[in-house]
Amino acid sequence: MCVCLRTPNFSWRSTNILRTNNTGKRIDAKMYCSYSSHAAKWGARMFGNPLLIPRIAIGKAIGFLMGLTGFVCLPWFVPEAGWLIRWGILLWYTTLGAIIGMFGVFTWHPVLKLPMPWWVRAPFLGAWMNFVLTFFAYDTMKRLLAAMFGPDGFLSSPFWFVADGAVAGLIIGYCATRFGGEGVETVGR
User: Fold this and answer.
1) CB–CB of 50/186 below 8 Å?
2) Rounded to an integer, what distance in angstroms lies between the CA atom of residue 13 and that of residue 27?
3) Which residues pair with 30 in a beta bridge?
4) In Å, what is the CA distance from 186 to each residue of 14, 59, 79, 111?
5) Whole-model pTM?
6) Separation between Cα atoms, residue 89 and residue 68, nearest integer Å
7) 14-20 long-range contacts, Cβ below 8 Å, gap at least 24?
8) C-beta of residue 163 within 8 angstroms of C-beta of residue 127
């Protein structure tokens, strides 16, 4: 519970926040209300301390860049690809980045009792999500890859998108963990 109290030497820039932690001990903290100091504190927290929202934002940004690459480059490889598949790729990888960013909280598998480092968790999520995409859009993916590599080409199987998802997940997971942190400390603030 947070209760805002004003200090005797009140200025419009600061207020004291009186709150209690889990043990019932009172914590007195100063909160700055001017825009410039608030922005400076947010920037320090974003890159200094791990938080969940910046982690998700970083994952979405990297996923958006990957999706934008697919959105722009797909007509060069497959000229008959429609707008629907192009927008789908853009939104899919943005969502994939958000999911990988959000799952950075889990660093321990509760059933298997094993640690889940980012380099295991992120590629697995990317591969799994692209497997689900391939499972439901198999015919569309098959037509796309047949147009790109030929009907009997080595890379003509739609399940190559699973490997693509693993690589995309690895890149997104690395950036989200490097710049946004991981584990319980991302939600503890």
Assistant:
1) yes
2) 20
3) 16
4) 26, 14, 43, 22
5) 0.71
6) 8
7) none
8) yes
